């Protein structure tokens, strides 16, 4: 008996924005396979930053106050009071440029706006903000990493990204040669894990070395 070929998830007659991938109900690995990439889940061994984060206590205090005083029921609120302060502090330390709602268009399957696109002298980092559902949010982040691979001219072997609800962060990486997306097994919580999170973000943007999966 011949098993019929499975119809494609991505329809050639349709256009897909990054946001549309968040709404797809298919398995992330199946979606990424149609974009020529594979998915694995593993601990990511991040580079260690020796940079002292001098304003960490003040940042933590501001975030704690925001959590207690602001109703975080919308994605916009989370972006403004939880995510932006962290990324602006990271940009201050690493001298990175922060692009907000950064538009890119590679083809009909890879197009849309990146919530945050940070670029330092050594590396880039994209951050996708979500109100909830990190699982489907990571699928969107993975697609954005694939798109950035075709968009930028830099030759970094690995690209990095994070998806966050503001109070929870998860990292991902894209090995460009093997087209392998790695979903980090660790979750970082704000404000509890702020120091560790900041060290990772700073290390990524200050590092010209590849991140390897365990």
Task: Describe the overall structure.
The chain is an alpha+beta fold. It is built from 6 helices and 10 strands; from the N terminus they run H-H-E-E-H-H-E-E-E-H-E-E-E-E-H-E. Strands 1, 3, 4, 5, 6, 7, 8 and 9 form an 8-stranded mixed beta sheet that branches. Helix 5 links the parallel strand 5 and strand 6. Helix 3 runs antiparallel to helix 4 and helix 4 packs across helix 6. The protein starts with 17 loop residues before the first helix and ends with a strand.
Query: Spans with pLDDT under 50 lasting ≥5 residues?
Result: 209-214
Number of H/I helices: 6
Order of helices and strands: HHEEHHEEEHEEEEHE
* Mean pLDDT over all positions: 92
- Main sheet specs: 8 strands, mixed
How helical, in percent, are the residues? 25-40%
| Basic shape | globular
Radius of gyration over alpha carbons? 17 Å
Key phrases:
10 strands, alpha+beta, eight-stranded mixed β-sheet, 214 residues, single chain
List the helices and strands and how they pair.
Elements: H1 18-23, H2 28-34, E1 38-42, E2 44-45, H3 56-69, H4 75-94, E3 97-107, E4 110-119, E5 124-129, H5 134-151, E6 158-164, E7 168-175, E8 180-184, E9 188-189, H6 194-206, E10 212-213
Parallel strand pairs: 1-8, 5-6
Antiparallel strand pairs: 2-10, 3-4, 4-5, 6-7, 7-8, 7-9
Helix pairs in contact: 3-4, 4-6
């Amino acid at each position: 008996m011949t098993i019929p070929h499975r119809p494609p998830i991505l329809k050639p007659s349709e256009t897909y924005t990054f946001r549309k991938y968040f709404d797809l109900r298919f398995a992330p690995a199946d979606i990424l396979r149609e974009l020529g990439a594979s998915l694995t889940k593993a601990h990511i061994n991040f580079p260690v930053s020796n940079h002292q984060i001098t304003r960490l206590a003040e940042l933590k205090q501001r975030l704690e106050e925001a959590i207690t005083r602001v109703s975080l029921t919308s994605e916009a609120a989370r972006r403004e009071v939880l995510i932006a302060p962290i990324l602006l502090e990271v940009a201050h330390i690493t001298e990175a440029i922060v692009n907000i709602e950064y538009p890119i268009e590679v083809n009909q399957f890879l197009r849309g706006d990146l919530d945050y696109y940070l670029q330092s002298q050594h590396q880039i980092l994209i951050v996708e903000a979500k109100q909830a559902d990190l699982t489907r949010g990571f699928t969107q982040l993975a697609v954005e990493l694939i798109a950035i691979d075709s968009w930028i001219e830099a030759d970094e072997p690995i690209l990095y990204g994070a998806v966050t609800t503001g109070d929870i962060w998860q990292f991902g990486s894209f090995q460009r040669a093997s087209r392998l997306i790695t979903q980090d097994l660790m979750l970082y919580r704000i404000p509890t894990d702020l120091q560790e999170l900041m060290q990772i973000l700073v290390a990524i943007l200050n590092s010209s070395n590849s991140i390897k999966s365990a």
